[in-house]
Amino acid sequence: MNETPNLLHTALSLAGSGVPVLPLRRGKVPFGNCTTCANNKCGGRPNMKTPGPCQCPDACHAWAAATTDPAVLASPAWTAAWQRAVAIAYHPGGAGLTVVDLDNADAIAWARTALPATRTVQTTRGEHWIYRGTMTSHNAVRPGVDIKSHMAYARWLGFGTGSTAALPEAVRALAVKETSMARRAPQSLTAPLRGHGSECPHRTPVFLERGIAMAEQRITAARSAIHATVYATFLAVLSRHGRCGCLTDAHFARLFTAAQAKGETARHCTEAWNNARTTLGL
What confidence tier does 252 reach under pLDDT thresholds 50, 70, 90? Predict the structure, then answer.
Protein backbone atom coordinates (compact mmCIF):
# COMPACT_ATOMS: atom_id res chain seq x y z
CA MET A 1 0.00 0.00 0.00
CA ASN A 2 1.36 3.43 -0.90
CA GLU A 3 1.83 5.54 2.24
CA THR A 4 2.68 8.73 0.33
CA PRO A 5 -0.81 10.35 0.49
CA ASN A 6 -1.00 9.74 4.25
CA LEU A 7 2.51 11.07 4.89
CA LEU A 8 1.95 14.13 2.72
CA HIS A 9 -1.45 14.78 4.32
CA THR A 10 0.13 14.65 7.79
CA ALA A 11 3.03 16.82 6.65
CA LEU A 12 0.69 19.48 5.24
CA SER A 13 -1.34 19.44 8.45
CA LEU A 14 1.77 19.93 10.59
CA ALA A 15 3.07 22.66 8.29
CA GLY A 16 -0.27 24.44 8.58
CA SER A 17 0.21 24.57 12.34
CA GLY A 18 3.68 26.09 12.00
CA VAL A 19 5.82 22.94 12.27
CA PRO A 20 8.58 22.73 9.59
CA VAL A 21 8.65 19.18 8.18
CA LEU A 22 10.68 17.01 5.81
CA PRO A 23 10.51 13.42 4.50
CA LEU A 24 12.70 10.60 5.80
CA ARG A 25 13.87 7.77 3.55
CA ARG A 26 14.52 4.14 4.41
CA GLY A 27 16.62 3.95 7.56
CA LYS A 28 14.61 6.91 8.88
CA VAL A 29 17.25 9.39 7.74
CA PRO A 30 16.94 12.47 5.47
CA PHE A 31 17.45 12.22 1.73
CA GLY A 32 20.99 12.87 0.55
CA ASN A 33 21.93 16.03 -1.29
CA CYS A 34 21.19 16.22 -5.00
CA THR A 35 24.00 16.57 -7.55
CA THR A 36 23.60 20.35 -7.55
CA CYS A 37 24.20 20.46 -3.79
CA ALA A 38 26.70 17.59 -3.44
CA ASN A 39 29.76 18.54 -1.38
CA ASN A 40 27.94 21.76 -0.43
CA LYS A 41 28.50 23.21 -3.92
CA CYS A 42 25.34 25.29 -3.44
CA GLY A 43 26.71 26.99 -0.33
CA GLY A 44 25.83 24.46 2.33
CA ARG A 45 22.37 25.12 3.78
CA PRO A 46 23.09 23.01 6.89
CA ASN A 47 25.38 25.82 8.03
CA MET A 48 22.43 28.22 8.16
CA LYS A 49 20.55 28.85 11.39
CA THR A 50 17.04 28.79 9.96
CA PRO A 51 15.27 26.03 8.02
CA GLY A 52 13.68 26.31 4.63
CA PRO A 53 13.85 24.94 1.12
CA CYS A 54 17.19 25.04 -0.66
CA GLN A 55 17.34 27.00 -3.90
CA CYS A 56 17.31 23.65 -5.66
CA PRO A 57 13.88 21.98 -5.88
CA ASP A 58 14.82 18.81 -3.96
CA ALA A 59 14.46 17.87 -0.29
CA CYS A 60 18.15 18.55 0.38
CA HIS A 61 20.31 19.23 3.43
CA ALA A 62 18.58 17.28 6.20
CA TRP A 63 17.07 19.56 8.88
CA ALA A 64 17.58 22.66 6.73
CA ALA A 65 15.13 21.29 4.16
CA ALA A 66 12.29 21.44 6.70
CA THR A 67 9.57 23.80 5.53
CA THR A 68 6.04 24.96 6.26
CA ASP A 69 5.42 25.98 2.63
CA PRO A 70 2.63 23.77 1.21
CA ALA A 71 3.69 24.59 -2.34
CA VAL A 72 7.13 23.13 -1.66
CA LEU A 73 5.80 20.10 0.20
CA ALA A 74 3.49 19.19 -2.68
CA SER A 75 5.87 20.16 -5.50
CA PRO A 76 6.86 17.54 -8.09
CA ALA A 77 10.36 17.11 -6.66
CA TRP A 78 9.10 16.68 -3.11
CA THR A 79 6.27 14.41 -4.26
CA ALA A 80 8.94 12.10 -5.68
CA ALA A 81 10.65 12.15 -2.28
CA TRP A 82 7.37 11.42 -0.47
CA GLN A 83 6.84 8.42 -2.74
CA ARG A 84 10.06 6.91 -1.37
CA ALA A 85 9.67 8.23 2.18
CA VAL A 86 8.99 5.98 5.17
CA ALA A 87 8.40 8.65 7.82
CA ILE A 88 8.17 12.37 8.58
CA ALA A 89 10.67 14.47 10.50
CA TYR A 90 10.41 18.01 11.80
CA HIS A 91 12.73 20.79 12.90
CA PRO A 92 11.98 21.33 16.62
CA GLY A 93 13.76 24.68 16.80
CA GLY A 94 11.74 25.97 13.87
CA ALA A 95 8.57 25.04 15.74
CA GLY A 96 9.73 26.78 18.94
CA LEU A 97 10.40 23.46 20.68
CA THR A 98 13.19 21.42 22.24
CA VAL A 99 13.17 17.61 22.24
CA VAL A 100 15.00 15.70 24.94
CA ASP A 101 15.60 12.35 23.23
CA LEU A 102 15.77 9.56 25.83
CA ASP A 103 17.17 6.50 24.11
CA ASN A 104 16.74 3.77 26.72
CA ALA A 105 15.10 2.82 30.01
CA ASP A 106 17.96 4.17 32.12
CA ALA A 107 17.73 7.57 30.42
CA ILE A 108 13.96 7.66 31.02
CA ALA A 109 14.43 6.77 34.68
CA TRP A 110 16.94 9.59 35.04
CA ALA A 111 14.62 12.12 33.36
CA ARG A 112 11.75 11.23 35.66
CA THR A 113 13.85 12.24 38.66
CA ALA A 114 15.82 15.14 37.14
CA LEU A 115 13.45 16.96 34.75
CA PRO A 116 9.96 18.47 35.10
CA ALA A 117 7.12 16.50 33.53
CA THR A 118 6.11 17.58 30.04
CA ARG A 119 4.53 16.27 26.86
CA THR A 120 5.89 12.78 26.15
CA VAL A 121 6.05 10.86 22.88
CA GLN A 122 6.87 7.16 22.75
CA THR A 123 9.73 6.18 20.41
CA THR A 124 11.04 2.83 19.22
CA ARG A 125 13.56 2.57 22.04
CA GLY A 126 12.55 5.24 24.53
CA GLU A 127 10.76 8.58 24.74
CA HIS A 128 10.86 12.14 23.44
CA TRP A 129 10.19 14.77 26.10
CA ILE A 130 8.96 17.93 24.39
CA TYR A 131 9.51 21.36 25.95
CA ARG A 132 8.36 24.83 24.89
CA GLY A 133 11.39 26.97 24.04
CA THR A 134 14.53 26.60 21.94
CA MET A 135 18.26 26.14 22.39
CA THR A 136 21.33 24.81 20.61
CA SER A 137 21.17 21.09 19.88
CA HIS A 138 23.64 18.75 21.58
CA ASN A 139 24.26 15.01 21.39
CA ALA A 140 25.23 12.65 24.20
CA VAL A 141 24.85 15.18 27.01
CA ARG A 142 24.68 12.11 29.24
CA PRO A 143 24.31 8.39 28.45
CA GLY A 144 21.35 7.85 26.16
CA VAL A 145 20.31 11.52 26.12
CA ASP A 146 20.39 13.91 23.14
CA ILE A 147 18.95 17.41 22.89
CA LYS A 148 17.32 18.36 19.57
CA SER A 149 16.19 21.92 18.88
CA HIS A 150 17.98 24.33 16.51
CA MET A 151 19.82 22.78 13.54
CA ALA A 152 18.52 19.25 14.19
CA TYR A 153 15.60 17.08 13.20
CA ALA A 154 13.38 14.69 15.15
CA ARG A 155 11.12 12.00 13.80
CA TRP A 156 7.41 12.82 13.99
CA LEU A 157 5.74 10.11 16.05
CA GLY A 158 2.50 11.82 17.00
CA PHE A 159 1.40 14.47 19.46
CA GLY A 160 2.09 12.38 22.55
CA THR A 161 0.48 12.85 25.95
CA GLY A 162 0.63 15.50 28.65
CA SER A 163 1.01 19.27 28.61
CA THR A 164 4.05 20.97 27.12
CA ALA A 165 6.13 22.57 29.88
CA ALA A 166 8.55 25.46 29.49
CA LEU A 167 12.15 24.51 28.70
CA PRO A 168 13.79 24.05 32.12
CA GLU A 169 17.21 25.32 33.17
CA ALA A 170 18.13 21.72 33.96
CA VAL A 171 18.17 20.94 30.22
CA ARG A 172 20.16 24.06 29.36
CA ALA A 173 22.64 23.15 32.10
CA LEU A 174 23.20 19.75 30.48
CA ALA A 175 24.14 21.48 27.24
CA VAL A 176 26.59 23.83 28.99
CA LYS A 177 28.34 20.82 30.53
CA GLU A 178 28.44 18.96 27.22
CA THR A 179 29.78 21.99 25.36
CA SER A 180 32.64 22.49 27.80
CA MET A 181 33.62 18.83 27.38
CA ALA A 182 33.36 19.03 23.59
CA ARG A 183 35.69 22.03 23.47
CA ARG A 184 38.39 19.95 25.10
CA ALA A 185 37.86 16.78 23.07
CA PRO A 186 39.16 17.93 19.65
CA GLN A 187 42.52 18.95 21.11
CA SER A 188 43.81 15.41 20.59
CA LEU A 189 43.13 15.79 16.86
CA THR A 190 45.56 18.68 16.41
CA ALA A 191 48.39 16.97 18.31
CA PRO A 192 50.54 14.17 16.89
CA LEU A 193 48.96 10.77 17.54
CA ARG A 194 50.92 7.96 19.13
CA GLY A 195 53.32 6.11 16.88
CA HIS A 196 55.37 8.82 15.12
CA GLY A 197 56.93 12.18 15.76
CA SER A 198 55.37 15.50 14.91
CA GLU A 199 57.07 15.80 11.51
CA CYS A 200 54.53 15.30 8.74
CA PRO A 201 55.76 12.85 6.05
CA HIS A 202 53.51 14.35 3.37
CA ARG A 203 55.43 16.53 0.95
CA THR A 204 52.75 19.16 0.33
CA PRO A 205 49.41 20.18 1.89
CA VAL A 206 47.83 19.29 -1.46
CA PHE A 207 48.26 15.60 -0.68
CA LEU A 208 46.28 15.89 2.55
CA GLU A 209 43.66 18.13 0.93
CA ARG A 210 43.13 15.61 -1.85
CA GLY A 211 42.72 12.82 0.69
CA ILE A 212 40.11 14.70 2.72
CA ALA A 213 38.21 15.71 -0.43
CA MET A 214 38.16 12.09 -1.62
CA ALA A 215 36.90 10.98 1.81
CA GLU A 216 34.10 13.56 1.69
CA GLN A 217 33.13 12.39 -1.79
CA ARG A 218 33.10 8.73 -0.72
CA ILE A 219 30.69 9.49 2.13
CA THR A 220 28.51 11.77 -0.02
CA ALA A 221 28.26 9.21 -2.83
CA ALA A 222 27.09 6.39 -0.54
CA ARG A 223 23.56 5.21 -1.31
CA SER A 224 23.36 2.45 1.29
CA ALA A 225 25.28 1.09 4.32
CA ILE A 226 25.95 4.65 5.46
CA HIS A 227 27.21 3.64 8.92
CA ALA A 228 29.69 1.18 7.41
CA THR A 229 30.84 3.66 4.77
CA VAL A 230 31.46 6.41 7.32
CA TYR A 231 33.47 4.05 9.55
CA ALA A 232 35.50 2.67 6.64
CA THR A 233 36.24 6.19 5.41
CA PHE A 234 37.33 7.40 8.84
CA LEU A 235 39.51 4.30 9.14
CA ALA A 236 41.15 5.00 5.78
CA VAL A 237 41.84 8.66 6.61
CA LEU A 238 43.30 7.85 10.02
CA SER A 239 45.41 4.99 8.69
CA ARG A 240 47.06 7.37 6.21
CA HIS A 241 47.11 10.64 8.14
CA GLY A 242 46.43 9.78 11.77
CA ARG A 243 49.94 9.30 13.08
CA CYS A 244 51.77 12.37 11.84
CA GLY A 245 49.70 15.09 13.48
CA CYS A 246 48.59 16.77 10.26
CA LEU A 247 44.85 16.30 10.86
CA THR A 248 43.27 19.44 12.31
CA ASP A 249 39.88 20.39 13.73
CA ALA A 250 38.94 21.71 10.28
CA HIS A 251 39.53 18.30 8.68
CA PHE A 252 37.62 16.60 11.49
CA ALA A 253 34.69 19.01 10.98
CA ARG A 254 34.61 18.47 7.21
CA LEU A 255 34.33 14.70 7.58
CA PHE A 256 31.67 14.97 10.27
CA THR A 257 29.69 17.48 8.18
CA ALA A 258 29.72 15.11 5.19
CA ALA A 259 28.53 12.22 7.37
CA GLN A 260 25.79 14.27 9.04
CA ALA A 261 24.53 15.43 5.64
CA LYS A 262 23.88 11.73 4.93
CA GLY A 263 21.84 11.42 8.12
CA GLU A 264 24.46 10.35 10.66
CA THR A 265 24.19 11.92 14.11
CA ALA A 266 27.13 13.65 15.77
CA ARG A 267 27.19 10.85 18.32
CA HIS A 268 27.44 8.18 15.62
CA CYS A 269 30.24 10.14 13.95
CA THR A 270 32.17 10.38 17.20
CA GLU A 271 31.71 6.67 17.88
CA ALA A 272 32.90 5.76 14.36
CA TRP A 273 35.93 8.04 14.69
CA ASN A 274 36.88 6.66 18.11
CA ASN A 275 36.35 3.07 16.96
CA ALA A 276 38.61 3.68 13.97
CA ARG A 277 41.31 5.12 16.23
CA THR A 278 41.00 2.14 18.56
CA THR A 279 41.27 -0.29 15.66
CA LEU A 280 44.48 1.41 14.51
CA GLY A 281 45.86 1.70 18.03
CA LEU A 282 46.00 5.50 17.93
Answer: confident
